[in-house]
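## Example record

The block below lists the input lines for one assembly entry, exactly as stored, with component labels intact.
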Amino acid sequence: MSLIRVRGLSVSLGGRRVLDGVDLAIAPGEIVTIVGPNGSGKSTLLRAIIGAVPAAAGTIERQGGLRLGYVPQKLALDASMPLKVRHFLDLPRPVSPGERARALDEAGAGGLEERQLAALSGGQLQRVLLARALLGRPQLLLLDEATQGLDQPAAASFYRRIETLRNRTGAAILMVSHELHVVMSASDRVICLNGHVCCAGKPEQVASAPEYRALFGTGTGGALALYRHEHDHAHDHDRHGEQAP
Amino acid sequence: MSLLLAPFMLRAALAALGVALAAAPLGAFVVWRRMAYFGDAISHGAMLGVALALAASLPVFWGVLAVTLVLALAVAALAGRGVPVDTLLGVAAHGALALGLVAVSFVPGVRIDLMAYLFGDVLAVGGADLALIWAGAALLLGLAAWRWRALLLSAVDEDLAIASGLSPRRERLTLMLALALLVAFSLKVVGALLVSALLILPAAAARPLARGPGWMVAAAMAIGAASALGGLALAALADSPAAPSIVSLAALAFLLTHGLASLRHRGDCQRGQ
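Predicted structure tokens for the full assembly:
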């Protein structure tokens, strides 16, 4: 049984057809990555799944009582609102200090409780957003360009954190990214999107698919191989990943 | 000094306090959501409500409430349909005000005191007005407390609110209807032109003092209440117009808190070097 099943989804924004006939199903515990160029409708697909944009055609079925966690690309928070991290984690439901500390630790944002949300760096905000999503004990975690603005080691360590999370909680992950080489190695399945689904499959299948090459060129092939090499040597992992800026 | 203790002064003080307290949470959300123009549009629309109420011989409160509610719903429905929202609100605010002034001039018979509707007439507040103001204030404060977290998350990020199973559209509508109600019951105190000032100034003045959203509302309440009482005292002692005195003090509070905050910030920077 799939957690969500998207059938023939089309979405129009401002009169422009952004998604056209998209089919997608996510099974429990899967890590699925959506890649695609700018304007290919990646973020719109996630927003359609949470219900923020209406479908012009098609259906989105959720498993009954599905718990969703959503990590947006950025917040629309206005600087006129004073908001500490712990206030933010109390929305929409207050949580106990213990729960809060656990979620922050798990997301790698431990100790940020008293910081103002508006004053966090991009990486810190991403981890706080992840912590907030974890508080709802999600069965499906949606991540929108979660590593935008992070350098490569930081992004790689963020993805490893996601992988660990999936292994521990069994939550399925659906993420959107343009950083192909880092993302792909951690994914069970890659979907290449450009308004419609161009190709889909295991990372190595997609990387060699002609549709994918047409969208991204062959330039990223080398980078993909490089990362996979790193990934194969699991004992080297942490040392590589913790080369913080 | 005995003037300050006269019954009409006491009523005025209670009325202004009620409005200031009820305006604080709404004002904070108006500031956070950048809806200042929206406050203007609704409050200026009150003038049209006055005209319609007088023409139909209805109580002014109900005329104003009806027009502000219709305006709030119309703006909410039209927002995001092509015309930029701030342009739309500019049209609604000044259109409704001008239309109201024209309409009032055609109301036969009664010679009305336009100034009282534009700037309020807080010293003439009666017992019934007072009951209305405090009932409205209690309703708004209760609403803000009840919807607090939902309103807050919707103001932080609408997509996050949707993902949490909330409806930001409903929270936005709640806020707009609450604003319409506030404008209707505070018309007598601050008038159509200054309602939105009492909404925005205390909340904006409270910003540098607060580390959390609840504290910002509490500080806005304190600043609003102090401005209300101080402005009335000024009106009684110096014979200045009441509502403009209240708003002037709130503006002064804004300059003070922001001035102090920027001085402190500069101090921090110098120490940091």
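Strands of chain A lie at 4-13, 16-26, 31-35, 57-62, 68-71, 140-144, 172-177, 189-194, 196-201. The longest helix of chain A spans residues 152-169.
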